[in-house]
Amino acid sequence: MSDLAAETDDPKIDPLIAASLDTCATVSAWMGALREHPGAMALTDASFVTTALVGVVCVQHSTTATCKDAAAQGIAG
Questions:
Q1: Does 77 score more than 80 pLDDT?
Q2: What is the pTM of this model?
């Protein structure tokens, strides 16, 4: 997540998001990492890290480990 938080080049951000969703195999792990580095998703505060955010991100990245876990939990589909 720290690499993602530091990246400012838009074309490089999406692949880093996908990589983070695969590196963190669960919704809980991904949300925890994002709470530590909210800037990774251009968030100003960790309070914006919610399952709703996971659902939105998983629309585009449904094949990643975190999004498969989200689908299994009924968070994303």
A1: no
A2: 0.84
